[in-house]
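User: I'll paste a sequence; please echo it back and then give the predicted structure.

Assistant: Echoing your sequence first, then the prediction.
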Amino acid sequence: MGDRTRKVAASKFRTALPAELPRPVKRAGSSRGQPPAHVRTIGVDLDPTDREHIRQKLGRRLSKFGASIERISVRLTDTNGPRGGIDKICRIKVVLSGLPSVVTEHRDASKQAAIDGALARIEPAVRSRLGRARMKPLHGRASRPLVRTRRAPTRGVEPARGSATPRSRGSAA
């Protein structure tokens, strides 16, 4: 029974990303719901069920970062057209609030494999970018001093070149 409760709770929070949001909601800040996911294609046919499937997978992978994501765009292109080959490219761009965007790309022979490859790479990339931002110090101050001071050399002792023992200046070699 505990497994069923977890599945119900997980499905309640992990929903598909919406196709678009009205303009006032986009400016509302981090308290809004899911970020919009725009799916665009060039030379590839995607039916509405495929588009919804992509949004479902994005929602499962990126909903935990929803407060930091402004928008997501998925572009699926066919570079060779009808000639075939490894030419389907899926590029996913996640625009983060206050940080540089994260872009992943995967090229494959089939559109589904290209989509799955790019989706597999996007979650670790977003997690890494947000983790790096969290590790940066506040207000641009470093935790260590930027300028390091050198210790003054000890008087009368000079480091030896080539040997591990120091020698004094006055001694003859």
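The two ends are 85 Å apart (CA to CA). Helices lie at 2-13, 23-26, 48-62, 111-135.
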